[in-house]
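Task: fold both queries, return tokens.
Query 1:
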Amino acid sequence: MKAQAMNSGDEATPDLAVARRVLDLESKALKAVSESLNGDFVTALDLLSAVAGRVVVTGMGKSGHVARKIAATLASTGAPAQFVHPAEASHGDLGMITSEDAVIALSNSGNTAELNDVIAHSRRFAIPLIAITGGPASTLAEGADVTLSLPKAPEACPMGLAPTSSTTMMMALGDALAVALLERRGFSSRDFQALHPGGSLGRTLLRVVEIMHGPEELPLCGLETSMADAILVMTEKTWGCAGITDAGGNLVGIVTDGDLRRHMQGDLLDRSAGEVMTASPKTIRPEALAAEALGVMNANSITSLFVVEEGQPIGIVRLHDCLRSGIG
């Protein structure tokens, strides 16, 4: 049977009280770590910005799980990164950490024995080492080039043992480093989309230029083109429309199937495209998001848009192209 939803009379249950206590403690820990930030954070960012290789993130136990997430966040925001397990590092994986890299090591106590070989390796080869730890006088902090200290904060576990507040602070610091580095490097939504081609994020950031049909497929006619020839172009290109350009190649109008019906008279075929066209058609920029193109088409009850750059038509995008790409 499905669990029954609690009603308003259940708001003060012991379980909810525990949950709220945990969230309150962790939110206070986050506030404390935010207030504790100083020039060491900027120094850490300077080290990461100068990395020619990868950012290696390491940690043991729960700190290791957080380290994996930080490495993934860095990699997805334009800073090549990888996780190295400290115990495996002592058995050959130190070879993954080169003199071109920087290391971020996580340990709440700062005295995690498995990190010792990573610390020694970084010192031996002058590899920048950033510590995230709650032990400012620990082995890790003493060996690091810069230490981001976690303020004292109670763990949410009633015994004060299970890593909760401490790992939340580590995770948040990792996010802060990744986002600050992203902004310092000028990482754009276009860069982000390139690293997230799959899933909803990739679809959301898809650009018109990536789904449009190119110049060779454009149905174009001049202002003086007869409608007989314009209809041949419309039929050949199968878009249900023709773009009308002036002598300079600028898009100035469009002839659609609807225009043909509205001008269905005996002399239609003898008229020029310029006489029948709808002037100033809706267009879209090549760098616009595909979602924007879909919005323009829906708002104007049309099924295609010419893609224009500096007045010149360079492509065409259809409603179907957006839907096929997962937009909408």
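Query 1 returned. Query 2:
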Amino acid sequence: MRSPDRASAVAVLPRKPRERNTDAAAARRVFDTAIEAIRALGDTLNGDFSRAVGVLYRVKGRVVVSGMGKSGHIARKIAATLSSTGTPAQFIHPGEASHGDLGALTRDDALLMLSYRGETAELGDIITYAKRFHIPLIGMAVNADSTLLRASDVPLILPKAREACPMGMAPTTSTTMMLVLGDALAVALMERRGFSADQYRDFHPGGSLGRMLIRVSDIMHKDTELPLIRPDAPMREVIAKMASAFGFAGVAGVVDGKGALVGIITDGDVRRHLERDLLNRKAREVMTANPKTIRADLLAAEALSFMNAAKVTSLFVVDPKTKSKKPVGLLTVHDCLRAGLQ
């Protein structure tokens, strides 16, 4: 029988327990090194950080973020985070910038440039361009005397920290600090701008983030769709209203002369009164008084949770800006499910 080749034999060998422990120890060493560096970063924060936030806050154009190599990958992420949190931003590759992409920079923009040691040669053309056209430059590096930070209008100095790799060469801890500092800039800008959940939703219409931020007012039925009747309406009219409301809503709201919600009639109420001469009764005799309601500005996910807890399938919606219980909408479980909520 032919023996398996060396590669195959190695592939099926189980790992020794000591090797697994070594892997875990390496991971913990990376975590501990990063935590130590981030704490040091927090201790070095000074007025330059606020100055940088001020520059980015006042920019009329975009924040252009640039970096080379691993710093460039972090710069892309920072640009994406800024854009999604209310600060228009764009990444420019320094190599491409030297071959025409500098045309994307305008005097209304601001530059955020990343280079751990601050001596990345590829950044030179962008730095020169920024100084020539008086474009504000924020530099992020570890060496205060580096070419980048000496040219910067606002220098963000990273603390010196050892890389987590055994050779101390692969960018690990250094890029983690850059990433965290970029996130800190984005969050500080969000707070200065008063960036709201509704604005965040506008920038994230797709995926789970967009669904989580849907409001009741976005998906509720309203206006002429609402199945509303008077307290003295005969049950024949009530049932007809329930059946005609957007494909049988299974519910009708009872409103008084001022339009305030005083009761609710569900298909369950109808079933419970079937043997009591139902069609000769009035709405007030069948309705459940003082029904539960929700506000239009509530997150739809919260409304769905409330319906599940209360074991109801629909709720009338009231305007949070007024104390009146006048219904402005109706939300059903099916509306939430169609919006992708679970």
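Both queries returned. Flag for query 2: Residues 17-43 form the longest helix (27 residues).
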